[in-house]
Fold this sequence. Notes:
The complex is a heterotetramer, with two copies of chain A and two copies of chain C. Chain A is of the alpha/beta class. Chain A has helices at residues 7-21, 58-70, 89-96, 99-102, 132-136, 149-161, 208-223, 241-251, 266-277, 300-306, 310-319; strands spanning 4-6, 25-29, 51-53, 74-78, 112-117, 142-144, 166-171, 178-180, 194-197, 202-206, 228-232, 235-237, 254-261, 287-291. The termini of chain A are far apart. In chain C, 43% of the residues lie in helices and 10% in strands. In chain C, α1 (5-30) runs antiparallel to α10. Bound molecules: thiamine diphosphate (2 copies) and magnesium ion (2 copies). One thiamine diphosphate sits between chains C (65-66, 114-116, 144-147, 172, 174, 176-178, 243) and A (30-31, 56, 58, 80, 84, 87).
Amino acid sequence: MQREITCNQAINEAIGEEMKRNSTVFLMGEDLYGNPTFGGKPLDLSLKKRVLNTPISEPSFVGAGLGAALTGMRPIVKLMFVDFSLMALDQIINQIAKITYMSGGNAKVPLVIWAPEGASGRSAAQHSQSLEGIFVGTPGLKVITPSTPYDVKGLFKTAIRDNNPVIFLTHKRLNYLKGHVPEEEYLIPFGQGTIKRKGDDVTIVSWLYTLNKSLVAAEQLKNEGISVEVIDLRTLVPLDSKLILDSVKKTGRLVVAEEEAKRGSVASEIAAFVAEEGFQYLKAPIKRVASKNVPIPFAKTMEDFVLPQVGDIVKAVKDII
Amino acid sequence: MQREITCNQAINEAIGEEMKRNSTVFLMGEDLYGNPTFGGKPLDLSLKKRVLNTPISEPSFVGAGLGAALTGMRPIVKLMFVDFSLMALDQIINQIAKITYMSGGNAKVPLVIWAPEGASGRSAAQHSQSLEGIFVGTPGLKVITPSTPYDVKGLFKTAIRDNNPVIFLTHKRLNYLKGHVPEEEYLIPFGQGTIKRKGDDVTIVSWLYTLNKSLVAAEQLKNEGISVEVIDLRTLVPLDSKLILDSVKKTGRLVVAEEEAKRGSVASEIAAFVAEEGFQYLKAPIKRVASKNVPIPFAKTMEDFVLPQVGDIVKAVKDII
Amino acid sequence: MNISKSKLINMYEKMVQIRLFEEEIIKLIGLGQPLGMAHLYIGEEAVAVGVCSNFLDDDYIVSTHRGHGHCIAKGVKIKYMMAELFQKKTGTNKGKGGSMHIADFTVGMLGACGIVGGGIPIATGSGLSIKLRETNQVAAAFFGDGATNQGTFHESLNMASIWKLPVLYICENNLYGMFTPASYALSVQDVSKKAEAYGIPGVTVNGMDVIDVYEVTNQAVKRARNGLGPTLIECKTYRYYEHYGSSTDSFYRTKEECEKWKQRDPIKNFRIRLINDGVLTEDKLYGIEEKVNAEIEEAVKFAEESPNPNPEDALEDLFV
Amino acid sequence: MNISKSKLINMYEKMVQIRLFEEEIIKLIGLGQPLGMAHLYIGEEAVAVGVCSNFLDDDYIVSTHRGHGHCIAKGVKIKYMMAELFQKKTGTNKGKGGSMHIADFTVGMLGACGIVGGGIPIATGSGLSIKLRETNQVAAAFFGDGATNQGTFHESLNMASIWKLPVLYICENNLYGMFTPASYALSVQDVSKKAEAYGIPGVTVNGMDVIDVYEVTNQAVKRARNGLGPTLIECKTYRYYEHYGSSTDSFYRTKEECEKWKQRDPIKNFRIRLINDGVLTEDKLYGIEEKVNAEIEEAVKFAEESPNPNPEDALEDLFV
Ligand SMILES: Cc1ncc(C[n+]2csc(CCOP(=O)(O)OP(=O)(O)O)c2C)c(N)n1
Ligand SMILES: Cc1ncc(C[n+]2csc(CCOP(=O)(O)OP(=O)(O)O)c2C)c(N)n1
Ligand SMILES: [Mg+2]
Ligand SMILES: [Mg+2]
């Protein structure tokens, strides 16, 4: 039988393996030993010295990650939630993303910033955000957004070995999602999306938790005779633009589905990209399915309404068929 | 003869007038008395008590602006450059933008954050950014981007009187631009773009300094027989979406021109919006003219190459004609 | 103690309100009622009440993720808080905020805050507002030991000091920030020591003793109202429950430590003191407890019977 | 002073390099050469040189917007710096950085930094790296008086303290942050006093005296290399020119104040001392100055003759 583990476990494995492989890899962040997202503690206690609890000082421990990366280490900086990255954006955008470029390529920044994002049910406006747009809009950052344990592990290992800053976004709702992860080592290159489901009538481009909703929507639509191709981007920077264009060339129709607030989202970026580079293929408007343009509200009725749902994806597809 | 003043003077007038009109209006920020962008000192020295120099503590003086706004004041918080807003984004995005919503509409936040942005010639990567995308992508903020002294003054006064957080972006290159500003009081409502130049073949949507380049491009294109309509959005949130759609309906072609790095820019948002809502009008791909996807480099040769130039706008228009 | 009898009674009642409100939450969680992320304040009641008993309605406070105690102490109505936790339209925040964002501007409660360190500048700004408006109000920022390592703590205390703002900085040092001991994360033992770095008074007080907290705060409020500027007050205290939720299992704290602190329970000991000092009889105290119990019961009923927000209500209240 | 003669000579030479490099910049600005935003270090040379003379090539420093002095003191080659200011392909940063971003990782200079307070965490992280790699290196963060009001100062000193990082925090207190007096913006008179808030040593030193700076730093470096953790060193100093550019007109400083500080000129006085102490003759010193002059001349020539970057070079170096 195939081995199945959760996304959390996949990350633990990736970090543990890379730490053993390379003594310059280390992990820092808040409350790592008790944080369910990290899974409790490093798998191998001999690595404990390189799993470092930080004070609650996001700007400085993120910046410290940069200092360590510049001087021979390969830090993984864990933010408890992506919402708290906003405290550290000067370091991320002004320093981390720019120093390699500003130094004419002399600085090497092998740094991973790992931040869980997304709404996970009544955590309200300051603990539910999806913020990939900010990172995608910042030249100098790679932005990774996996949806399965397999991808999480393979991409995390690639991230750790990359010599550039990587923003690794996971989705809280996927933490305990199980999936096949082989025992053997593997890496997944950045910039390669995958077709999760083949189809002819419409292309849905998605990532993270909304990908799952997209797949459910595609199944529902199949029952109504609509054939949907679903693409999991897996990495937003670099972007597998060819995969998107090829699919749209075939289907002529595009829906981008994700969890950020719609305005200024990566969904907008991808729509704009296709409206610029793939216009000739388009038979219908490009639809974006995303969160409504408000903060995430607390009450479930309202939270559900604000977040993109399967029904919204189904409707978007039907609107352009 | 019509009175002409600079954008800097227009802001000074707007602030001075509103401070006199309402004793709860005050200005805080770094080095205000010597800062050329503020123009040296308040016009009326009786207002000095309400022009407050802050320590270099962006997160906290921006957050203090919120505290003051919640308790009966109408603060204008000046950031020396928008680049430094990144230090204060937790306050701006997690607190300021969300508290009205999170409190069920009970919090009133009459707060203006004024930040000059853009490249002004060899200021390099940390002093040249255009970051409207971050603010436009944050529900709960109004985002204002005027291009003329007239608009600067009228919109700034409206911003001060608004009971919601307003991000007021000016462009450093426009500080000393002169234009007509009447002596009489006037206000300009948010959400109304203007057609700067009428045309039939292509619509250029633009704002801030790139608007000027767009107008020059339109003039050049006229000489080649291409009739360009140029829209100055003036405010990005709220967005005058009707003005954009009406124009695209007429011309069938759209170029969005602005200074952010292209990926994840507001240009992308507007392109995505039109690809969704105005697809039926489009005769050609939507073009985005923006900065290239790198930080702003120091040397002039490279800086010029990275920034959107008149020639780039001309070329984009011709590409879709 | 030269605190009026009515004030003492009021303080006791507030503490009991906080305790019973949260015990009700624990009960409700046990019953499977989804209340969101509730960070319980039980054990720390003396701090909120000792501080806020010095305030008038138009004084301001800014709270934290652990905000119920501050809300109740500042006068937010329990039934609207309960309705908020129940995600109802009648909640303090119309169901949009939840536990971490309860606010009530009518009683100067400017908001709980889910971002550690995020509220400190806001309180500082309300102090600046007081100074600019030249009123006699004061403001207080509540924050934990963990939050003192956030840059906003430093920046805000500096600003409050140079501008002599009428702000009280109340550190609730409950020895841990989530699972991290203050003794690990903090470079000094007493947070109050950091006051010197800003040229302002700093005091450490027994956060399990409401009278101690009250009196130290009282001095600081006087200073503030007299234009002498901010004070940093560190209250050593303890949370009985886990970082959030209703569990008491801690992998990072010993049972003995918890038990030791519970011996110092702020309510139990204040109760004994009130009886011993002849302020109130056991009967009267019991009467207060009964009254609060009824209040809580009523609040739950109100919350249960209140209407849910409509999904589309989510689109309202972004701007006013 | 028990500093070797060769070290003293080296220190003098470095200070002269900084001074003449920047005087050349002033000349070039006067001639209309566009060099970008140059924040001049003239007047503060004793700090960079006094500190960095304690370092080896593999020790680290992180600098500020006012970085030329730190770069030169840490061993960055003048001709590549000049080429950078000339926006040339041969510059330290290939023309992509300019004055505020000069970096040279081969000599442990991790970068100037245009964001006030932005470099402090980076230096702290390089200290963490040293600790994790278990080497004998040290790191230093330079920052101004203004930067100490940024939250990163507070957070970083706390982290360095609890982890006992080998980091020196060097505050260049030149009495002003841009146009704002430190006496207005800072809640204490001496920045070094803030060290107590982090349980680490703090020293104020005469930043116009390179030997004083050297010796205090020397102690701190020893502490750091011995695993005893960070030190905060405040150097009182003065910039002779305006916040940036080559003007000397200040609306916020008096001519008298400037003159008073120039009396204490770090180079002039060190020169006299070297002669008086018999370390070097006037002739030899003059020889050093001549040598540096020639070096600067050569650097300008190199910069002038270097090729401009191609526009498309702008697309390179985003990732490595
Ligand atoms: C900026 C930020 N970082 C991390 C968190 C996650 N978090 C919530 S509470 C907490 C611990 C706070 O400790 P302390 O300030 O001592 O308050 P306490 O919970 O002990 O009352 C942490 C790390 C957060 N909410 N915000
Ligand atoms: C975060 C940030 N805020 C504001 C500025 C603008 N600025 C540049 S230098 C400076 C003053 C810095 O003062 P100080 O730290 O004392 O250094 P000095 O210039 O005196 O050497 C200011 C306000 C900036 N670069 N970064
Ligand atoms: Mg705590
Ligand atoms: Mg200074």
